[in-house]
Amino acid sequence: MPATPKPSSGLPRDRVSRRGITLLEVLISIGILAIGLTCVLGLIVAGRASAARSIVYDQIGTVTENARADALTLGLTRLDALTGPTGGDCPPPPLIFDPIGSASGVWPAASGLHPAVLRAGGALCVPDTPSARPRSWPSAGYAFETRDDLATAAPERDDQLPRNRFTAGVRAFQGRTTWLALLTHPFTTPFEPSQQATLTIVVCHKREPGVMPPPAGVLPADLKLTAADRLEWSTGTLVAGRADKEVVKVGGWLLLAGTTTDPVIPPKVHRLVQADLDRAGGGATVALEGNPRFDVTTLPRNAYLLPDAISATEYTVTLQGADEYAR
Fold it and tell me: CA 144, CA 146: separation in Å to the nearest integer?
């Protein structure tokens, strides 16, 4: 006897066995996708910042070596090629070369640092002549900035190309990476030829002209190292336009200079590896790279912030004097 067929539901077999996607499932999928895209977006932003930082730090070595070579080539170690901002013979040590941070050559007298500039005629100039006077700005700072970032002026019309900018007849650069130099030795006597000296190259990034020492050559708020691990300053902003925690931080750089009580100790650039600001402000507990030791008789010491510095390298150089080819 044949089997009796079961009554049909009237719907196709595939529609009976398959369910649809509910609105809740759609919302959950969109939420998961949004979270994933947000994480990816954050990684992109962080990756761009890391890549830009890597490019800057990759340039440090090249800029430092180029700066050292330029310093030796231009005559920063030739005593007969150096003069003060107002002329005259080579200033006594310690010397600082910073035409960008302090174009006028003005540094606080309390720092004990003597600004030095190149003579207009370099080492080949004759003393007591116009060529022995200081080089004029901006030529004095031309070698102290990178020359791979030309400064341009916006075109007058959309169909024109940007034009290179010139300052006093010299091609202008953005100068995103610049440097300054210190020339020191542990003596109070003037420099002499054939002496060993320390040449310190400090590389900076995005430094505005006149920022060092801040602001524009004025002693910054009585900033002093009062103990080996104690940095103090009077009330007020250390660097105009910046919070104290933005400049007194891990990775920041300090230039510690001598005072009238310790002229034998040469100035030195130190990197901060610890910087805990006081809640009330006006001070911080700090640690300097290499744990330098300071005699209690030499404290307090004047400190100068280098807010845009990214590296400092020391070289031992031999000072040069006049020879038969210098005239």
Answer: 7
Taking alpha carbons only, the member of 172, 315, 155, 305 closest to residue 245 is 305
| CATH code for the domain defined by 214-305 | 2.40.30
Give the DSSP per-residue string, 145-197.
B-SSSB-EE--SSTTS--EE-EETTEE-B--SEEEEEEEE-S-SSPP-TT-EE
The two structure tokens encoding residue 151:
């400064």
Mean pLDDT of the chain: 78
Q: Residue 327 — pLDDT band, cuts 50, 70, 90?
A: very low
Domain boundaries, the chain: 24-153+162-212+313-321, 214-305
CA–CA separation, 321 vs 204, rounded Å? 30
The DSSP result for 55-91, as a single string, is HHHHHHHHHHHHHHHHHHHHTTTBGGGEEBTTBSSPP
The predicted model scores a pTM of 0.76
Among 34-43, 222-231, 303-312, the range scoring the smallest mean pLDDT is 34-43
Side chain identity at 83, as an amino acid letter?
Answer: T
Would you give the end-to-end CA distance of the chain in angstroms? 131
The C-alpha atoms of residue 306 and residue 269 are separated, in whole angstroms, by: 9
Report, as an integer, the average pLDDT of 36-40.
83
